[in-house]
Specification:
Helix content: 55-70%
Number of helices: 21
Strand content: 5-15%
Mean pLDDT: 95
Largest sheet: 8 strands, mixed
Low-confidence stretches: none
Shape: globular
Structural class: alpha+beta
Distance between the termini: 44 Å
Oligomer: single chain
């Protein structure tokens, strides 16, 4: 079974030429983050991912987390890996230095997080949920609560979770029933929560649960939800751990994938009420949780990138080794000499690089939205980030399904056998389209809150920027760049037509617009991925002319961009037709027998 190797060369190239690393490092607060330091960080992270996390990925999947009378035992090797992970400072890398983190740019932490997710997605989810809880507390908790919880959560000594949904609620958080009754300086929490990632485990000494619940005077719906911090063990005034809180993991789910990540069913208040502390304002809990949603959805989109990368690496290694049949490509006795296998591998590679480019681009824009010295630029970039996030989350995770499926196909019958590891990637990837809101939820957010609510201002501005790049490339002296510009413009024409259709018809025909929302998300991701692949090719060609870097690798970047043009971006008009014409055919089925 092949070992994961971080694609450092492509990561660094994408950070530099797509995320804009130099400009990010020049922002206030990031002056000590030089490109050389970033390269060193990525190299160290790569060693940890390959040497520590990857070796326990498959075994962890086979063994899984184990529940025993309320106690969850992590898979063999996970506890030791987590201790090493925290000791070497990786857990708090993206967090604020105020609480012991390293405060690195989002773009840099995104590249590092990709490695954790590629090498061991189940393991990486513990840090992801902890950092999400850290962000919510840092944004909204009182200084006293921050000092009580954050330093040890940032260090990894304690972990964190998000307890949102309940059995009867699903994605409709307005239907939650958990209660919070005031009692002195705290509240008594009661209720049941499901799908709590790493809600119980033995890797850390305490777990801080962020719980959505309703106060006695809460109004109905989402406006009546408050947020509370409920630690597994109460914390004494001196910071030491006290009594066990009244909360219990009653079971862990038996899942399709990510078996080593315990998904807990949590019960609060069976013995009178779990002690919880109000975070932020009463009845504003859902809004407080959503302040961290951009990072959470970016990170889930990144899971799509990461698992797709791992599936590609495994398929490539198998294709280079497996000998079967008479090949048609000279010098390639293994199955990589079969043209269709080469086509699948090239398409996998092109999709992964486009996904990575979009995720890193969004992360770089997030850094500018938070830290650019010009307030007007920050406002503009935040609007762009808001537009990009549902596309990153939805398109990258949906595209990952195609990549991991091709990974199984490259293996042939052996891909269906667990011992090759290819099947695990297919199983693990499936949850990514559901985490943090399904693809349909992302698409409705994209066309509703991000497109129609502002009349398409941000999307049209981005389209103008992409069109300017397309025209420049189409007229370039370099013959290798001109087809990329022409193909990108065709994709942009399709995106522009679909955008205008939604802006014109959406307000009067909301059901028709919603029926085309997911195709529109696919169209936007396909075109934006093609745009960034074209930009990557342009940067690679420029470096080739300067003889700056590995000529073979730079040439491969251009070749991959061309493959993306002919095998991925070419689908843009079909996605446009599904937006414009698919709505009527979908809605016409309302009288059909389902």
């Amino acid at each position: 079974m092949s070992a994961y190797q971080a694609p450092l060369r492509d990561m660094l190239f994408t950070l530099q030429h797509i995320a804009g690393l130099d400009a990010i490092c020049a922002q206030p607060g990031f002056e000590d983050t030089s490109p050389d330091l970033v390269e060193a960080i990525l190299e160290e992270a790569s060693r940890f991912a390959t040497g520590v996390l990857d070796p326990i990925n498959w075994s962890g999947d086979q063994q899984g987390a184990r529940w025993d009378q309320g106690v969850v035992h992590s898979a063999d090797g996970f506890k030791e890996a987590y201790a090493q992970f925290c000791e070497t400072g990786w857990n708090g890398m993206p967090a604020s230095p105020e609480f012991g983190g390293q405060g690195l740019p989002t773009a840099v932490s995104t590249a590092v997080l990709e490695m954790w997710k590629s090498s061991n997605m189940a393991f990486s989810l513990c840090q992801m949920l902890t950092l999400g809880a850290v962000e919510a507390l840092a944004r909204h908790a009182s200084p006293e609560l921050q000092q009580r919880f954050l330093p040890k959560m940032v260090s990894g000594q304690w972990t964190g979770t998000m307890n949102l949904t309940e059995p009867q609620a699903g994605s409709d958080l307005s239907a939650i029933r958990s209660k919070a009754v005031p009692e002195g300086d705290h509240h008594r929490i009661s209720g049941h929560k499901i799908f709590i990632t790493w809600g119980e485990h033995d890797m850390a000494e305490n777990i801080v649960h962020l719980v959505l619940a309703r106060l006695p005077d809460a109004p109905e719906g989402v406006k009546g939800i408050s947020l509370f911090a409920c630690p597994k063990f109460l914390v004494n005034a001196d910071g030491s751990l006290g009594a066990r809180n009244d909360l219990l993991c009653t079971a862990i789910e038996h899942k399709l994938g990510i078996h080593a990540s315990p998904t807990a069913v949590m019960s609060f208040g069976d013995q009178g009420g779990a002690i919880g502390y109000l975070v932020g304002e009463a009845h504003k809990g859902l809004g407080h949780m959503f302040t961290m949603m951009n990072h959470a959805r970016l990170n889930v989109g990144l899971e799509g990138v990461a698992i797709a990368e791992r599936a590609y690496q495994r398929a490539r290694a198998y294709a280079l080794d497996r000998v079967q049949g008479r090949t048609l490509v000279a010098g390639s006795p293994a199955i990589i000499g079969h043209p269709d296998v080469r086509r699948m591998l090239m398409t996998m590679k092109a999709r992964v690089e486009a996904m990575r480019a979009l995720a890193y681009f969004a992360a770089g824009e997030m850094d500018r939205a938070h830290g650019h010295p010009d307030e007007a630029v920050r406002t503009q970039k935040q609007a762009l980030v808001d537009l990009l996030i549902p596309i990153v989350k939805g398109w990258c995770t949906e595209t990952a399904q195609l990549v991991v499926a091709d990974g199984v196909q490259v293996h042939g019958g052996m891909g269906f056998i667990e011992e090759t590891g290819a099947a695990q990637h297919l199983r693990d990837a499936r949850i990514t389209t559901i985490y943090e809101g399904t693809t349909g939820i992302q698409a409705n957010d994209l066309i509703g809150r991000k497109l129609m609510r502002e009349g398409g201002v941000t999307m049209k501005a981005l389209q103008r920027a992409m069109s300017a790049d397309a025209h420049r490339l189409a007229e370039a002296e370099d013959a290798a760049l001109r087809p990329l510009g022409l193909g990108l413009q065709r994709g942009l024409d399709a995106l522009s037509q679909a955008t205008e259709w939604l802006l014109t018809c959406g307000p009067q025909r909301p059901a028709a617009a919603a029926a085309g929302a997911v195709p529109y998300l696919h169209l936007a991701g396909t075109v934006m991925g093609g745009w960034l692949m074209a930009r990557s090719a342009e940067a690679a060609q420029a470096r080739l002319l300067r003889q700056d870097g590995d000529a073979a690798a730079l040439g491969a970047k251009v070749a991959t961009a061309h493959h993306h043009l002919h095998h991925v971006l070419v689908d843009a008009p079909a996605w446009r037709d599904r937006v414009v014409n698919g709505a009527s055919s979908t809605l016409s089925l309302q009288d059909a027998q389902f």
